Amino acid sequence: MPNKERTDEARAILIIYTGGTIGMVKDPVSGLLKPLDFQHLLNQIPELKQFGFIIDTLTFDPVVDSSEIQPGFWIKLAQTIYDHYGIYDGFVILHGTDTMAFTASALSFLLRNLGKPVILTGSQLPIGTLRTDGKENLISSIEIAADTYNGNPVVPEVCIYFEYKLFKGNRTTKYSAETFNAFQSPNYPLLAESGVHIQYNHDAITKPEDNKPVLLTKKLNTNVTFLKLYPGISEKVVNSILHIDGLEAVILETYGAGNAPRLPWFINALSAFIQKGGIIVNISQCMVGLVDMAQYETGNTLHQIGVISGRDMTPEAAVTKLMFVLGTASSISKRKSLLELSICGEIS
Ligand code: ASP
Q1: In which band, very low, low, confident or very high, does the pLDDT at 151 lie, cut at 50, 70 and 90?
Q2: Which ligand 1 atom is the nearest neighbour of the CA of 100?
Q3: Which pTM value belongs to this model?
Q4: Given the DSSP bridges, would you call strands 192-194 and 165-168 parallel, antiparallel or unpaired?
Q5: Confidence at 9, pLDDT banded by 50, 70, 90
Q6: Strand duo 111-112 + 54-64: pairing
Q7: Over the stretch 154-171, which tens digit does the pLDDT of each residue have?
Q8: The domain that contains 53 carries what CATH number?
Q9: Do residues 211 and 156 make contact, with C-beta atoms less than 8 angstroms apart?
Q10: Cα separations (Å) of 228 from 240, 260, 276?
């Protein structure tokens, strides 16, 4: 519950701290970065007291480096937001950058019909360090989470805020382990950019459908894997992936506009997997552009054997969408039709 007396005008934001570099310190013995408690982090940002609204905090136990995150964590996070949805006007999630784009994509499927902002942020340098990027990321995320337009939240969807930019969560990918601008959304415009003012791109922001309650899903099916093509990939490698026990779906990472070799053993192996009820979704290894299996013969062969186009989905959106679709639909036709749809703006 908000810890201050709440008036009608007072907005309330919940910060959920899950871990990541933003809250880490160097272990004096090993010299390695490890997560620290949230109070330490808050002590570094006295500026938070200047916000004119209620800011409450909730810490996950344990806090983790995001490389440790598993799908059960996404469900726990979605459930936490759902449980506090009626009480708060917006949510800011502090999260490691390594798998932030996976979590953002997963949340967009697990929490549909969102009418309030859920903003993930973190940093490349811990908040206690002199040149940290964490303070600006956190402060602007809180401001965006509380911002309104015509009395409604400006950004009622799952987003990532990083280095002056607000991205649509399920269109975002981490592309730099070095620079402060660690994220990109190569196939979707920015939702906002912050300078002296925060400039929103209202046309790119999803508008919630009137009077639809937020919908929590807690079922994810992880019987899915990636198969990334490269010249020289062997029949043995492809077959050992396609014969993984219990595997139900494969994300085929193809070349360019969705192209793959037409080697008979390769096409036959994919076709046999589909014939047995397996699902193959084609996404491109290129970050920009989309899969168009009608462009080249090498792509069209995949289309003919029943490979589904993932169009311009990021790998993060593709794998979390598949876990969601396999978790919610059991018939092949229902799974296929959900995969061809944009469920929450993850494909153009
Ligand atoms: N390994 C860290 C994490 O993802 C990196 C970061 O936060 O930037 O938790």
Answers
A1: confident
A2: 4
A3: 0.94
A4: antiparallel
A5: low
A6: unpaired
A7: 999 999 999 999 999 999
A8: 3.40.50.1170
A9: no
A10: 13, 10, 21
CA of 314 to the centre of ligand 1 (A): 20
Task: Tell how far the Cα of 312 is from the centroid of ligand 1, in angstroms.
Answer: 26
Is 103 touching ligand 1 by the criterion CB < 6 Å? no
Is 4 contained in some domain? no
Average pLDDT of the residues in 229-237: 98
CB 73 within 8 A of CB 167: no
pLDDT for 7 equals: 53
191: which residues sit within 8 A by CB, 6+ positions away?
A: 155, 159, 166, 167, 168, 200, 201, 204, 205
Is 317 found in the same domain as 169?
no
Per-residue pLDDT, averaged over 300-318, amounts to: 96
Instruction: Tell me the H-state helices in 111-215.
Output: 134-146
Each residue's pLDDT tens digit, 34-47: 777 777 777 778 88
Domain with 144 in it: 12-216
CB of 96 shorter than 6 A to ligand 1: yes
Candidate from 34, 64, 65 with most ligand 1 atoms within 8 A of CB, to mutate: 65
- Among 216, 238, 268, identify where a domain stops: 216
Task: Determine the residue of 97, 120, 178 to mutate for testing ligand 1's pocket, defined as the one with the most ligand atoms within 8 A of the Cβ atom.
Answer: 97
Q: What is the pLDDT of residues 169-227, one digit of tens each?
A: 999 999 999 999 999 999 999 999 999 999 999 999 998 887 789 999 999 999 999 99
Asked if 78 and 37 sit in the same domain, the reply is yes
Determine whether the shortest distance from the Cβ of 20 to ligand 1 is under 6 A: yes
* Closest alpha carbon to 319 in 107, 160, 106: 106
Q: Does residue 345 lie within any of the structural domains?
A: no
How many structural domains compose the chain? 2
- Say whether both 211 and 252 belong to one domain: no
Predicted pLDDT of residue 285: 97
Q: Which of 21, 99, 121, 320 is catalytic?
A: 21
CATH number at residue 279: 3.40.50.40
170, 237: one domain: no
**For this structure, is 97 an active site residue?**
no
- pLDDT at residue 150, rounded to an integer: 86
Residues 244 and 311 in one domain: yes
Q: Which of 165, 181, 216 is the last residue of a domain?
A: 216
